[in-house]
Amino acid sequence: MEKQCPHGQSSTASAGAALGVPSYDVDYYADDVIRNPYPHYAAMRALGPIVYLPRLGNYALTQYAEIRTALQDWKTFTSTLGIAGDKPGCDFLLGGGSNIVRDPPLHDEIRAIMARPFAQASLKGIRDQVREAAAELIARLVKTKSFDGMTVLASYLPLTLVTELLGLPEDGRKNMLHWAAGAFDITGIQNDRGKAGIETIKEMRDWVVNIKPASLKPGSLVARIRNLIDAGELQEQYFLSIMNDYLTPSLDTTISATGHLLYHLGRNPDQWQLLKRDPSLIPNAINETVRMSAPIRSFTRHLTVDYRYGDALVPAGARIMVIYASANRDERKFPDPDSFDVTRANAKEHVGFGHGIHLCVGMHLAKLEMESLLAELVQRVDRIEVGEPTVVLNNSIHAFEKLPVTLHS
Q1: DSSP code for 390
Q2: CA distance 145 to 101
Q3: Domains of the chain by residue range
Q4: What spatial distance separates the first Cα and last Cα of the chain, rounded to whole Å?
Q5: What angle in degrees, to the nearest 10, is found between the helix axes of 87-96 and 192-209?
């Protein structure tokens, strides 16, 4: 791929596909595509590293190499014009000031403040707490035997631990999942789900700006942000944006990945037995899950310059969908990509948590939670049985709403 300097007036994506870019005519945010997107990803990859989606007026990156390169090159693929699949969504998200729609240097300054409590070294202090909570949960569920894996297991640690870490008042804790779902609907397009999401996030923003500092748990993450503001180390104007980023992505991605982990281990008993024989494979099993079932389907970027892909020149200003879930099943990078393999040598090279400067801030906490659950399961459970899942109809999050699970011990 070769970057080109801007020259004259460039047409926008809405004017049609650039010469040499194949089109793929699908309603990317339709219910049936959300329920089973993988054949569409494969079809798009087969057309080339970039395709044009005429129903959206967007380009889409489909293959691993191009997606990883784009995520590393924030100067060319900017987030500052929004990450949603349409302009109304982009404009609305920009109004909330999330750090995901910032580029350096401001992005780096805010991220350093946000990410410090989620660094691996910082999480050592809660490691025992997470493992104890996981042990208690799995011990209880082994006795229960059959349950809904999403509401009872996958949601448990995020809803108890993350909300406790944030230290929000009770009304904030009980609304976090609702708010997060709305935010991820907006990052798609403003169909009925996206429009409802906008109203949901307006409600969240109103709640955030009226938080009373005295209602926050002392020593919590949100109390820490308020203390930094009071000490003059952070400007008040960034409180809402940090709260956006703490409240909306911190639950759904972990819950999604945990649900898919249960599903893959239940549907692949040979892989489950490998884990039981060799628990050192647990971290790789989690990476393989995120590779196969990326929690976030795609976000978008905008080109700051004309960009050449082979014989195609895509114009500056074009909206580019970065389809993480397609990259993670690219056969050019991952042999036999539709197979779940806990021994896969390059599973950790997935982009399911993003890549580059916008890599998921809470990735290490999510992995800690899943590793703790899996460590208890391999000790206590002989076989995981799963039924047919129900997929959540969300524009951006790929997750199960329900997953019947039976633990055989």
Answers
A1: E
A2: 44
A3: 2-106+295-327, 111-294+354-408
A4: 53
A5: 10
Task: Read off the tokens for 193.
Answer: 């789900």
Does 105 sit behind a cis peptide bond, omega within 30 degrees of 0 on the bond before it?
yes
- The residue among 137, 144, 145 whose CA lies nearest residue 383 is 145
* Burial grade of 165 (CB within 10 A; 0-12, 13-18, 19 or more): buried
d(CA 354, CA 31): 24
CATH architecture of 2-106+295-327: 2-Layer Sandwich (3.30)
Closest CA to 37 of 338, 249, 268: 338
Structure tokens at 325: 């879930």
**CA neighbor of 261 nearest in space, from 239, 283, 279, 240:** 283
Secondary structure class of 327 (helix, strand, coil): helix
**Residue 335 is encoded by which pair of tokens?**
């042999």
Q: Side by side, which strands form the sheet with 319-322?
A: 50-53, 58-61, 319-322, 299-303, 77-78
Which runs of consecutive H residues, i.e. helices, occur in 116-220? 120-123, 127-144, 156-157, 163-166, 170-186, 192-209
To the nearest whole number, what is the mean pLDDT of the chain? 92
Could you read off the pLDDT of 3-21 as tens digits, one per residue? 333 322 233 333 478 888 9
Name the burial class of residue 5, with classes exposed (0-12), middle (13-18) and buried (19+) by CB atoms within 10 angstroms of its CB: exposed
Q: Which amino acid is at 278?
A: D
pTM > 0.90: yes
Q: Does residue 278 register a pLDDT over 90?
A: yes
Residue 159 tokens, joined: 């809803």
Looking at domain 111-294+354-408, its CATH superfamily turns out to be Cytochrome P450 (1.10.630.10)
Confidence of residue 248 (pLDDT cuts 50, 70, 90): confident
Burial pattern 36-51, b for ≥16 Cβ within 10 A else e, equals ebeebbbebbeebbbb
Name the residue among 300, 301, 308 with its Cα closest to residue 7.
308
- Same fold yes or no, 2-106+295-327 and 111-294+354-408: no
